[in-house]
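Format notes (please read before filing issues)

Several people have asked whether sequences and structure tokens are stored in separate files. They are not. Every record keeps both together, in the order shown below: the sequence lines, then the token lines. Line labels are part of the format and must not be stripped during preprocessing.
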Amino acid sequence: MGRLSSVLLKGLGAVVLAVVVLSVVATIVGIALSVIAAVLSLVLTLAVLSLVVLTAVGLFSLFGADSSAGSDSDTPAETRPDPEERVRSRYVDGDLDDEEFERELERVLGEETVGVDDVETDRSRRRHRERERR
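Then the structure lines:
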């Protein structure tokens, strides 16, 4: 039985060794899969969070507290800039050259005098003097 017991011990040792090796391999594979799952979870979380932030920014810009970006009809007439002043500020900013400035100024002044019944105010006299100086 000496020989049989030695074969049995070698076989049992081989089985134990195989179980240990398989356990180590399974542990390594499990760790790798958990790291991959954690990275995917992080990427997915960041993607969802960025969508939420982008949606919030979009909604805030659409419905934000800054209502001055709306149309001029929301603002009272006293706070709206004079059309002549708008043309002058566009000229000063460099948006209009000399010829465009003259055309726009005459158009604005022409719109203001329509329906006035030729009543000349101090303001219109001042504008006429300014135009004559140029």
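For reference, the curators noted about this record: Confidence is low (pLDDT under 50) at residues 115-119. The radius of gyration is 42 Å.
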